[in-house]
Amino acid sequence: MEHKTLSELTDQELLQEAKKRKSAVITNAILIGFLAGVIFYSVMKNSLGFLTIIPLFFIYKLANNSKYDHKELENLLKERGLK
Fold it and tell me: Considering the entire predicted model, what is its pTM?
């Protein structure tokens, strides 16, 4: 399946993308919270080390993995009167 731009998506596909984004945001928030807890525990037990940096990398990747721009998706939904 090829990657389409948001403006090329149908109304139904756009709504599905918004629904996927909402569930992905919740999942990412849970994972980021868990990894922050791992970092906190690691710092309290051993101080800063290499194993503390690994969860920081995963937090960065989770925060920046969005397929489409969030603002662009919201603007397109409002423009089409879908949300």
Answer: 0.69
